[in-house]
Amino acid sequence: MPRNALENPHVLAVLGLLLEQPMHPYQMLAELRSRGEDRAAAVNRGSLYNIVEALVAAGWVAVHDRQREGNRPERTIYALTTAGREELVRRLDAQIRIPARELTEFLGAVSHLGALGPDRAADALTERAGRLQERVAAHERNLAQALAGGVPRLFVIEAEYAINCVRSEITWVESVIEEIRTGSLAWPTAAG
Fold it and tell me: Where do the H-state alpha helices sit in the chain?
């Protein structure tokens, strides 16, 4: 994670949530988790509170209200400021316009695919393709439910993008499997 909380990739998600409505951090975390495992996987309550504190210090969010229910601790509800909305728009615009080099664990692993040998590489890629197909099916079900529930397509368009990215990966993985199995992907012989 970045040292500066404002560089945390979850800043965009928090600003986006607060664009929808004022929230307290626990509600933000619950909302991130409900919207998808990928978004909330790397954020925990502590890092979320650090992000919120940094956003307040930057003037991008402000205390909207404080509420207490029964014996529960007081909850601070935060709202997006004008400066926060401007920062959200600036970041979104830049991230949509400028393709970043997004390195994944898979990219790192596939760069050393040869170490597995052809049979094991084909087996591993076959298993990956199957898991990716399961993921696409689950995402498609979730997207269909959201759309059937009246959520505007624009509000879930990132789900369409994610589905298409995974489909593209499946296509590539299956083509490499085929090349391994037919021998058209040359495998170096071990140096003796």
Answer: 10-20, 25-35, 37-40, 45-58, 82-97, 105-110, 118-148, 157-182
